[in-house]
Amino acid sequence: MERMPKWADVILTPLISLVLAFAISALVILAIGESPVEALKVMVEGALLSSYGWGYTLYYATNFVFTGLAVMVAYHAGLFNIGGEGQAAIGGLGVTLVLLYLPWPHWALALPAAMVGAALFGALWALIPAWLQARRGSHIVITTIMFNFIAAALLNYLLVNVLRPQGSMDPASASFPPATHLPKLSDMALGLGFEWGKNTPANITFFIAIGACLLVWLLIWRTRLGYEIRALGKSEPAAVYAGISPTRIIVIAMLISGALAGLMAINNVMGEAERLIFNAVEGAGFIGIAVALMGRNHPFGVFLAALLFGFLYQGGGELALWTTIPRELIIVIQALVILFTGALDNMVRMPLERFFMAMRKRGGA
Amino acid sequence: MDFATILQIVDSAVRLMTPLLLACLAGLYSERAGIFDIGLEGKMLMAAFTSASVAYATGTVWLGLLAGIGGALALSLVHGLASITFRGNQLISGVAINFLAAGLTVLLGQKIFGLGGRTPSLEGDARFHAITLPFAENLRGVPVIGPIYAEVISGHTVLVYLAFALVPLTWWVLYRTRFGLRLRAVGENPASVDTAGVSVTRMRYAAVAICGVLCGIAGAYLATGISAGFVKDMTAGRGYIALAALIFAKWRPWPALFATFLFGLMEAVSNRFPDLDLGFVTIPSMFMNALPYILTVIILAGFVGRAIPPRAGGEPYVKER
Amino acid sequence: DPALIFDLGGKFDKSFNEAAYVGAERWKAETGGSYKELEMQSEAQREQALRRLAETGANPIVMTGFAFGEVLGQIAGDYPDTKFVIIDMVVEKPNVQSIVFSEPQGSYLAGVMAAMASKSGTVGFIGGMDVPLIHKFECGYSQGVKATKPDAKVLINYTGTTPAAWNDPVKGGELLKAQVAQGADVVYAAAGGTGIGVLQAAADANILSIGVDSNQNHLHPGKVLTSMVKGVDNSVYDAFKAGADVEPGIKVMDLASGGVSVAMDDNNKPLVTPEMQAAVDAASKGIIDGTIKVHDYMTDNTCPVQ
Amino acid sequence: MTARSGAENMAPAIELRGISKAFGPVQANKGIDLLVPRGTIHGIIGENGAGKSTLMSILYGFYRPDSGEILIGGKPIAITDSLTAIRAGIGMVFQHFKLVQNFTVLENIILGAEDGPMLRTSLGRARAELKRLAEEYELQVDPDALIEELSVGHQQRVEILKALYRQADILILDEPTGVLTPAEADHLFRILRGLRDEGKTIILITHKLREIMEITDNVSVMRRGEMVASVKTAETNPTALAELMVGRKVLLRVDKAPARPGAPVLEVRDLRMVDADGVERLRGIDLSIRAGEIVGIAGVAGNGQTQLLEILGGYPEPGAKLAGEITLKGQPLALKGSDARARRRAGIGHVPEDRQVEGLIMDFTAWENVAFGYHDAPEFQNGLMMDNAAIRADAVGKIERFDVRPPNPDLASKNFSGGNQQKIVVAREVERNPDLLLIGQPTRGVDIGAIEFIHKRIVALRDAGKAVLLVSVELDEIMSLSDRIAVMFDGRIMGERLPEQTTAGDLGCLMAGVAPSDQDAEAGA
Ligand SMILES: Nc1ncnc2c1ncn2[C@@H]1O[C@H](COP(=O)(O)OP(=O)(O)OP(=O)(O)O)[C@@H](O)[C@H]1O
Ligand SMILES: Nc1ncnc2c1ncn2[C@@H]1O[C@H](COP(=O)(O)OP(=O)(O)OP(=O)(O)O)[C@@H](O)[C@H]1O
Ligand SMILES: [Mg+2]
Ligand SMILES: [Mg+2]
C-alpha cells in the first residue's frame, strides 16, 4: 500500500518543488534589484512562446537527453558516471573524424556513420574507467572525473596541433562538408509546408534523442541485459548468486553509458556547429547528472527534465541577452531547481503524504 | 635536477596542496559521518568570495576568514537540511550547491563591486602574508636541513600551518575522542548510534558543520592566502580533486595528507616543466597539464585498489519508511 | 543603435572583452547615445544573437573574438543592410569590417622592455589556455627579448587545458613563483583572470610583471613594468562613432596605426629608464618602417626563436 | 522470584497501555496492553509481521508510539528516544544486531556510554568491567576483536554485554536464538535464568515454542498487530499456542514417509577450498546424495557450510582456490571460476542462506524476483525482449500455490515479511523441479505456519525423486527433515548419522568438533 496516490508522487511533488524553486529565484532577482515578473516573462516568451524559442529549447534539451540517459544507464548498474562531459567531448572527436576524413555524398549516409563514430568514441572513453572499476576496484567517480580533464587536454592538443586548419586562429577543426549538414527541424517544417523555428539549431537529432529514450526504456525494463544491469545495481551478492558477472555488466553498462554521452555530439557538433570546437559540450555532461536524478532515472522523466533544463537554458539565455540581468542568474535558478526538485523533494513530499493519509483516514472512517 | 630545484618544487607543492588538504579533511569529516559531499567545490568557492569581500570591506583578513567560514557553513547547512533532515539525495544536493555557489558569487560580486564577479585586489592586512619561522635565515647555511627548513617549512601563511596541524588533530579527534567514535559509528551504522542513545541527526549535523568550517578555511586560503582577491570560478576544480584525494586516502587523515601532497607535487612538477623534454620526444604542455590526472588514474589502478567507503555513506538514515 | 556582443569570457574578463566595454562606454559618455550589449552564454547562441540583433535593426554590430568568425561568415549575407564589425578575426564579406591586431608587434616591444629591465637575463611568459592566439603574444615577446639580449632565456608556461585556465589566479601565482625560482625577474602574463594572480604574485615577489590587453599598470603601481595594450576600446569607439558608415574590409591595428602599444604612464614611469624608452622608440620605428620584421606565429604555426 | 518487598517493588516492571503504532498505511500495533512482572522471563510469540519487533522497539524508544502509555516500575514515563529507555534501565538486543562491524568489541560496548570526552578513560574502565561481566555471566569475548571477525553467537554476546554494561534491569531479546546453535542457545538460557534470579526482568521474542515452554514464566501471543492472549506458561501447551498464533491448527511435526533413495545425484570427492585471504575453509569434503533423499548438514555457522553451498551453486568467492571433484548425475562439474548460470541449467536449484542479501533483489517486485536466476530461461524470452507477461503469469501461479501473502505480484519484495520473502525464494527454486536442491537455513526467522509449509514442499520434492542438500543450524529442523545427517566442523565432515539413530547430544558433540567415540563411529559408518 502506498502512502499517497502515484500521480501525487510523480506530478504534484515535483510541481510544487518547482514552484518553490522559482519563488526563491524571484527573491534572488529582487535582491539584485531586478523585476522577477519581467524576468519570468522574458524567459517564458523567449523559450516557450515562439517556435523560435522552442527551436533552441529543443536543441538544448536534446543534448541533455543524451547525457541524462548516459548517467541513468550507469546509475541503474550502481555506477555514478561523472564522465559524461569527457565522453561527449570525445564523441565529438569521433564525429569529426568520420565526417572530415571520409567522403559523404548525403547526410542520410553520413548520419548513421557519424552516430557510430560518436557512440564508439564515447564508449571507448568510458571503457578504461569501467574496466578499472570492474577489475581493479578503482572508484569510478574519481576515474571519470580524471578522464574529463584528460579529454579536455587531448582535445586541446588535437584541435590546436592536428585538426586546426593552417592559419586559423580558432582552436577548431575545419567545417564539415555541406553534404553532411543535418536537416534542421525548421527545414523539415518547411518541407511540410509551414514555417517553424527559422534559424534555430534544433535538428533531426531531436528525434534520435526520442528514439534513444525509447530504446533505453526497452533496454532497461524489457531486455535480459537491462534486468541484469538493474539486478547488479541493486545488489551485487544477489547478482553473483544469480550467475550474473559483475565485471561483464559493469563494462557493458559503462560502454552503453559512454556511447549515449558520445551520441550527444550528433546534436552539437554535427547538427549545430558543423565543426569541432573546443569545449563544445559546455557542461551538458554535468547537467546530465541533474537531469537523470531529477528524472528519477526513468527515460520519460529524463526527457521531461531535459526539457525543463532546455527551457532554463534558453529562457536564461534570453534573459542574459536582452536584459541587464547577469547570466549567472540562470546558474542560480538551475541550482535552485536541482536543489528543490532533486534533493529537497521530501520537504514537499512529507507534508503531502501526511495530507493524503489524513484524507484517507477521513474517507475510510 | 638539483637540490634547490627539488626544494622549490616541494615548496610550491606545499602551497598548492593546502586548499586540497583542507577540503579533503572537510570531506573526511562529512563522509565519515555518512554524508557524501561533492559540494566541496561550491563551498570553497562561496568561502573564497565571502572571505575576500569581507576582508576587502573591513581591511582585516581575520574577519575575512570568519566570513569565509560563515559562507561555507551556510551552504553546509543547506546540504545538511537536504541530506539529513529531508533525507534527500546527497549527490544531487552537492551538485546543486556547486551550481549555486558558482552563480551566487558572481551575482553578488557584480551587485556589490561591479567588477564582473571579481573583488578588488586585497592589500596589506586584508590578506594573509607568509611568515618566516624563527631562525629560518640563520639556519639556511646548515647543510640539507637548513635549506629544507628555510625553503619548504618556513615562509607560508598561517593557514598552511593550520592545515598541516589539522591532520594530527583530525586523527586524534577521530580515534581518540568520544566525538570521533560516534562520528565514525554514525557513518558505518547509524542505527547502532541511535540505539545507543545518541542522536544521529545531531552527529551528522556536527560533521557537516565541521566540513563547512574547513571548506571555509580552504576557500579563504584561496582568496586571501595564496592569492589576493576573488575571481569567479577560482576554485578551478580543486573541490573535485580533493574528493579524489579523499577516496584515494580511503577516508583516513594521514593518507589524506599524502594524497593531497601527491596532487600538489604533480601540479608543481608540471608547472616547473611545462614542456618536458625526454630527449627523444617532447611532451606538449597540454599533457603536462593533464599529468596529475593521468598519474592519479595510474596510481589508483596500480597501487591503491578497492576503496571501501563508510558503509552507511550516501544513504539517509531512515527508521520508518 | 549600435550593438556590442561579448564573447564567452564575459564583459569583465579583465581583458579584451572588458576593453571593448570601456570603448563602448566612452562612446556613450561622449555622445549620450545608447547601445545594446549582449553576453554569450553558449556556443549555440552566437547565431541567435547576431540574427536577433540584426533583425531588431542594430547597426553596426560589433563582436569580440575569433569564435564569431565562422557564424558571421554564414549569416552576414542574410543582412546586407547591416554592418558587422568583428575583432580578432578576418571575415571577408561586403558588409563586414574585420579588425585584427598585431599582437606580435606590441608583444615585441614588451619583450624589448622586459629584456632591458631584467637583471638576471631570464624573463617569463605565462599564457592562459594553450591556443594559437596566445602563441602570437608569446612569439612576439620572445622575439623582442632575443633581439635585445640574444642570450636571454624566456620561460614559458600555459595555465591549463580547460576554460578554467582563464580564471585560476592561484595557479597563475604559482606559475609565477616557479618562474621566479628559475631566475625570471620580469614576467609577461597573457591569461585573462589568471593574469591577475600573476601580477599579484609578481608584486609580492618584488619582481616586474607586464600586463596585457588593457592598461594594467595601475594594478600594482611601480611593479608593473608596462602593459601590452590592444586598442580594442578605440576600435569599438570608432566603430560606434562611424555608425552605419563603418568601412567594410580588413583593418589592421598595428603599431603604426596605434592599434597596439606598450602603456607608459605615471605608474610605471620610475621603471622606464631613458635607455629603455629609447630602445622601445627605436624598435617601434624599425617595425613601422619595416626594418624589423616581427614574425606572426599564425602564419606558419612556428616561432623563429626557441 | 526475589524476596523483595515494598509497594514499589510489587509494581510490574513494565506495563504497556493501549500502545498503537502505524507505519504509513500499515497498522503495526493496535491498542496493545502488556504487563510484565518484575523478575520474570516473559515470552512473546506471533507470526511474521505480527508487530512484535515494533512493540519492543517502542519500549526501547527506537520508534515513537502514536498513542498509548508506558509505565516502568509503576511510574509513567515518556520514552522519546533510546537514551530515555537506557536511563530507565531498559536494554535491548535487536533481531538485526546494531553493531558497528569494523569497530572492536570494546568500542561497540562504550559507544554512547562513554565516561567523558576522551576515549582513553572509558576504554580502560570498560575493559575492566567487561572482564568482570564476562566472568560473572560466562560471556567471554575478546574485547579487541573486530565485530566482523566474530561469529553471530559472539556478536550476540556483545549485544547482551552492551545492555549489561549500561546496567539494564530490563532486557529485551528479539529472536535471539535464530542464529544460535543448540549449545549456544542452552548457554544463553542459562544466562537468562541467572539474570532473572538476580531480579532482572527479561522479554524474549521467539518463533520456537520449545523455547517458550522451556524458559519463560509467562507468554503473550500477538496476531496482526493485536495482543490476542497472555497466559502463564505452565498453564498452556505448544499446540494451543500455535493455534492462538496462527488462528488455525498447525502440525508441529514433519510428516514424511521413509526415503527410497535411488541413484547418486551428487558426488563430492575431497573438495578443498582456500579463500582469498589464504584461510583453508574446506579441508576435504566427501559427500554423496542420492535421488529421493534429503541429506542434512548440521553444524555451527561458519564451519564451511556457506562455502560448500556457494561452490556447489557455482559461485565460489572471488580469489578462492579450489581442488577436488564434483560430479552431478555422473557428469563432472568444472571447478574453475564462477558459473551459477550453468549450474542452474544443469539442474541445481539453490535457496541461499541469506534471502535478503542473495536470494532476492529487495527492490524488485515479487514477479521479477520469481524469475531471478532463471531470467534467461527460454520460456521467459520473446525474441530480443524478455517476455514479462509470461514471467508475471508464472509468478502469479507460484504466489498462489505457495500462499504468499499478500498475493500481490507487483509489490516490492522488501515489503513482504521475512516468511513470505522466503516463500518466494522457495517457490522459485522448488517449482523448477531441480535434480538437486541446495537449501540453506530454509526457515530462519520464519514463523511456524510458514515453516510447516516450507517443510512440506521440501519433502514433496524428495518424494518426487529429487536430491536435497539441507544446511541448517536448527538441529530440530535437521533431525526432523533429513534422511541422513552429516555434521560439519572446521571445513570437514565430522561424521554421518541417521536421524533415528542419533540424539541432539550426540550431534552437538560432533558439531563442537569432539571426535566420536569408537562405538559412535561404527554406528555412523
Ligand atoms: N520501520 C518500519 N517501517 C514501516 N513499516 C514497518 C516497519 N517495521 C515494521 N513495519 C511493519 O509493521 C508490521 C509489524 O512488523 P514487525 O517487524 O514488528 O513484526 P514482527 O512481529 O517482529 O515480525 P517477525 O516475526 O518477522 O520479526 C509489519 O507488517 C511491517 O509491515
Ligand atoms: N524499515 C522497514 N521499512 C519497511 N518495512 C519494514 C521495515 N522493517 C521491516 N519491515 C517489514 O516488516 C515485515 C517484517 O520484517 P522483519 O524485518 O521483522 O522480517 P523478518 O520476518 O524478521 O525476517 P528476518 O528474520 O529474516 O529478518 C516485512 O514486511 C518487512 O518488509
Ligand atoms: Mg521482528
Ligand atoms: Mg523475523
From TrEMBL, chain A:
Signal peptide: none
Membrane topology, as annotated: Multi-pass membrane protein
InterPro entries in alphabetical order: ABC_transp_permease
Transmembrane segments: 12-33, 53-75, 87-104, 110-128, 140-160, 202-221, 249-270, 276-295, 302-323, 329-352
GO CC term, one of those recorded: plasma membrane
Location of this chain's protein in the cell: Cell membrane
Annotated keywords: Cell membrane, Membrane, Transmembrane, Transmembrane helix
Keyword Methyltransferase applies: no
One MF term in the entry's GO annotations: transmembrane transporter activity
Pfam families in UniProt: BPD_transp_2 (PF02653)
Protein name: Nucleoside ABC transporter membrane protein
Species of the source: Paracoccus lutimaris
Automatic annotation (TrEMBL), chain B:
Record lineage: Bacteria, Pseudomonadati, Pseudomonadota, Alphaproteobacteria, Rhodobacterales
Name used for this protein in its record: Nucleoside ABC transporter membrane protein
Keyword Transcription regulation: no
Membrane topology term: Multi-pass membrane protein
TM spans (from-to): 12-30, 65-84, 91-113, 153-174, 205-231, 251-269
Source organism, top-level taxon: Bacteria
Organism: Paracoccus lutimaris
Any Pfam family: BPD_transp_2
Keywords assigned by UniProt, alphabetized: Cell membrane, Membrane, Transmembrane, Transmembrane helix
Keyword Metal-binding in annotation: no
One term of GO molecular function: transmembrane transporter activity
GO cellular component, one term: plasma membrane
Localization, UniProt: Cell membrane
TrEMBL record, chain D:
GO cellular component, one term: plasma membrane
Residues covered by the ABC transporter domain: 14-249, 266-515
SMART domains attached to this UniProt entry: AAA
Bilayer topology term: Peripheral membrane protein
One Pfam family per UniProt: ABC_tran
Annotated SUPFAM superfamilies: P-loop containing nucleoside triphosphate hydrolases
Keywords annotated in UniProt: ATP-binding, Cell membrane, Membrane, Nucleotide-binding, Repeat, Sugar transport, Translocase, Transport
PROSITE patterns assigned to the protein according to its UniProt record, in alphabetical order: ABC_TRANSPORTER_1, ABC_TRANSPORTER_2
Family: Belongs to the ABC transporter superfamily.
The protein's name: Nucleoside ABC transporter ATP-binding protein
Taxonomic lineage from the root: Bacteria, Pseudomonadati, Pseudomonadota, Alphaproteobacteria, Rhodobacterales
